[in-house]
């Protein structure tokens, strides 16, 4: 929780400027890079010098003004997939040292509600309530499209020396897929898994499924370049849904019974129903995507087949820690997904590239 009265005096921290450049959202579609004071960490917070910040579909919703609980226009910096170097420590922080390289999870729960007490901090009952200690960087609090950002110490992870900042951006993303697997039971060794959507979440989830010993890992998408990348990253089979109906193709690969688990990472309106049609009796569907509107789903067929549906939001359950461990062992390759780098001053161009898919981006990062 930010406690200004006890905020760290940065005058004692040489090398940290008073002012930084930061992308501020002034209104729907109106993002400008302006001068902002460098924030001061509270007692349990860390000031991080941002190395880079990834951009995703959530940022497009935030940029358009369609995301709930964001701070007021004119006083808010988005960016929730950032990584960097520790610049200063709050007074009660001894877990890190200045110059440590760190990666993040976006959510810090309040620590006092029923869900936080049960470890479900991405479902914090005080979501968006800064006064009660909740923070979702770049969503309900200032994020990483800036020179510096403060973050709760409990949501930071040391970045192993073998990993690059590009890897670190995708570690946050990998945490989303791992959390989905976690809430669905986690133990997938030997299970046939279908991943819908070869975006960054899906591509990291494919790797996680391989690392955790899945049987066949089948990836479904529509863009050949992303499917090729998925194959290089460990998918056993890739299916282009524009060329072949994925349902019979997956049934064919699984002896007609269907997959043990379907993981929906695409956000396409038709994908949940396809998940239902390719999951075997007694299997599981895991949904980690967001949709542009209500989804049509044959729930009776799902009930008849004893299929369980699990959903999860973001990278909770301490799964970023698990992602760091897998990445350190070479089991999660993040940097290969980073296709575009832009300086912070060109964040408008970066947003356009993500929205228009100019140059077939997978992960776009912005660097202050
Ligand atoms: Zn994101
Ligand atoms: Zn809470």
Q: Roughly how many Å apart are the termini? A: 26 Å
Order of helices and strands: EEEHEEEHEEEHEHEHEHEHEHEHEHE
Helix content: 25-40%
Overall average residue pLDDT: 95
Cofactors, ions, other ligands: zinc ion
| Proportion of beta-strand residues | 25-35%
Q: Number of helical segments?
A: 10
- List the uncertain runs: 1-5
Number of strands: 17
Principal-axis shape: globular
Structural class: alpha/beta
Rg calculated over all Cα atoms: 20 Å
Labels describing this entry:
368 residues; 10 helices; alpha/beta
Explain this structure.
The chain is built from ten helices and 17 strands. It has helices spanning 57-63, 114-117, 165-183, 200-211, 224-232, 246-253, 271-278, 299-304, 319-328, 347-356; strands at residues 19-27, 30-37, 45-55, 81-89, 101-104, 107-108, 135-136, 148-152, 156-158, 193-196, 217-221, 237-240, 259-264, 279-287, 308-311, 338-343, 363-367. The strands form four sheets. Strands 3, 4, 5, 8, 9, 16 and 17 form a seven-stranded mixed sheet that branches. The longest helix is centred in the middle third of the chain and has 19 residues, at 165-183. It is 25% helix and 26% strand. α3 (165-183) packs across α4 (200-211) and α6 runs parallel beside α7. The radius of gyration is 20 Å and the shape is globular. The model is unreliable at 1-5 (pLDDT under 50). With 368 residues, it is α/β, with parallel strands linked by helices. The chain binds zinc ion (2 copies). One zinc ion binds next to α2.
